[in-house]
Amino acid sequence: MSMSVSLKKATNKTNIKHNNRTMSDKDKERNSHIDESRSHENVYLVQKDLKELYQEEFGEALENYNAKQKRNDRKIDDYFKHIQSSKKTALQQEMIVQVGDLYDFPMRKDYEKGNEILLEWFEDFEKRNPNLKVYNAVIHNDEATPHMHLNFVPVASGYKRGLEKQVSFDRAIIQQDPALDKTRPFDDWREKEVQLLEEKLLDRGIERKLVGTNSYKDVNEYKEKQDLLNEIAVLEGKVDEKKNEFLAISKNVPDKNLVLKPKRKEIKTEVVPKMFGKPEIHQKETGNYVFTPKQMEQLETIVTAAVAVKKDYERLQSMNPVI
């Protein structure tokens, strides 16, 4: 037997009333996928007020910060509202955690197994993640599959500017686990949590089924794949850039033989003085032609473009294309 594991960030879709099933009648109508006859089977693990959590975590830091400010316009009256109005920082984070899919839960006893796994995983969540302050956690058993909505506030500390403690997901998880990849802290953190869920499956003789983004065996394989994709994207960008350069240069190269019409032939004038009378003036062609400055500028542009095209052609000829 095998089951998939999913841990997805759903911060932009957070709806605590939906999570806690305190929706209005109109909202319930819009959520027809919920089987209300089974809503009493949902497991509510944590239900705290988010504003109160902010006061607990940031109240003292806010007081200390404001006490240092000499200008009133630099003071922050309410850190909750301050973050709520921020365009850069999320007020909280939500994860949707699930094992298996709808085909894995045909019977109620299967739901119980899914609940066991989620409960065991969550039991030590805050111990593993002391910087992620959980304020809401619930397991839904009234939908197609049992899954958990986990909401928390990531708290980081040690700031020199602003409050000493602030909301920051990446910094919070790096501070609690310095071994995380600093370039992809969330991906690394997520993979570790997914591996713990996988262990819960294995304890029950269930293998992890790899699907979607979970088809990578570990975070390193995922990173290698992403690095390769990023490298390809960079190369494609360079190819497009060179293509545009080539097209721009090619516009200056004429499609047919260039014919420059000279303004006139160059005439050399020689004045021969005489002992008596006017000097003699001799004119003869030098074999050269006279062109206007505009014609010379046109010729220079064409020659420069032709040289660039020739160099690119020679460079491509020297390469070993891989087919």
TrEMBL record:
Locations of Basic and acidic residues compositional bias? 23-40
GO terms classed as biological process: DNA recombination
InterPro entries noted in UniProt: Mob_Pre
- The annotated region (Disordered) lies at 1-40
GO molecular function terms noted in the UniProt entry = DNA binding
* Protein family (similarity comment): Belongs to the plasmid mobilization pre family.
Q: What protein name applies here?
A: Mob protein
Identify the species of origin. Answer: Candidatus Kurthia intestinigallinarum
Give the source lineage, highest ranks first.
Bacteria, Bacillati, Bacillota, Bacilli, Bacillales
